Each structure stands twice: as structure tokens, then as C-alpha cells.
Amino acid sequence: MLHLVRHGRPLVEPGLLPSAWELDPAGFDAIWALRESGRLPAVARWFCSPEPMALATAQLLTDAEVGVVDGLREQKRDTPDWIEDFAATVRRAFADPDRSAHDGWEPLRVTRERVVTTVRHLIDEHPGEDLVLVGHGTAWTVLAAALSGTEPDLERWAALAMPDVLEVVST
Q1: Does domain 2-168 have CATH number 3.40.50.1240?
Q2: pLDDT, tens digit (0-9, with 9 covering 90-100), for 101-157
Q3: Rounded to 5 degrees, what angle do the CA atoms 83, 25, 32 make?
Q4: Where are the domains of the chain?
Q5: 15-to-61, 80, 123 alpha-carbon distances in Å
Q6: Is the pTM of this model over 0.85?
Q7: Rounded CA gap, 19 and 7, in Å?
Q8: Residue 10: strand pairing partners
């Protein structure tokens, strides 16, 4: 089974790229609650995005070794601009994955190809094992769709908490 964990609540720092944001300590209780919830397997291989909020979330969720995998990064968003209607911008990215939805954002197709290739490699390297991957909502939404052979579930994306877990069985 594949368990996709969305990171905990970030500490938003205007002027800093989102990929550099740390976790908001005020959100640690939600991460500890997820750790104690029984929603994650007791025995699993753990991997995470190199982004600080994902790595810190993984470290708060498990005492196990966590592999940092660059291919699990979120959609590249090289702009520190505050986007007033972030959800609408992400929806544009899903509607036209071959184009950048905002200046400095990689096309979502690129994100999907990177994340799916990376996760298929991890699955092949660890056959039959539970994997827990700690990362990001947009990346997990495109990955879950690709692995399950369905369309991305934007309502589920919008409803994801920080942190949250998606369980995926790949086809």
C-alpha cells in the first residue's frame, strides 16, 4: 500500500519561495495527532520531499529512517509572490497541465512526470512493502490519479488538511 502524507501547516514567509517554507510550530499538534491516529502503517519504508516542511513533517511522524528523494518535490513554483486566489491558480494548472498557470510555475505535466516516475521506481525497489511518502498536495493529487488510472480529484485536493493522508493502490 502507498500512503501519501501531505505535510503539516507551513509557516508562510512572504518574499520566500514556498519550497523553502518551514513548518509552523502551531501546527505540530495536528502532526502528532496523525502519528497517534493509526492511519499510518506500523512498519513501512519512509521517503519524503526535500522541502523543509515535508522533511520536518516526516521527522515528527516517525522514528524510522526517512529517505529524502528530490523527485517527490511539489510543483516547482519559482515565485515568492502571494497569489490571492491560490485555489483558482491550481485549478488552472489542472485544467491545462501543459502550460504554466502562473509566472514561475512549472507546467503540471512536468510535475506529474517527475513524481510518477520517482514513485514507480520506489515501488519497484520495494515490492510488497508499505511505503509512506511525505510531500505535497498538488503532487499527490496528480500521482494518485496517475496510479489509479482516474482523473485528478480536485475536490479531494481542496479538502486535504495539513497534514493528511491519501491511500493509493496502483494499477
Answers
A1: yes
A2: 999 999 999 999 999 999 999 999 999 999 999 999 999 999 999 999 999 999 999
A3: 115
A4: 2-168
A5: 29, 5, 37
A6: yes
A7: 12
A8: 23
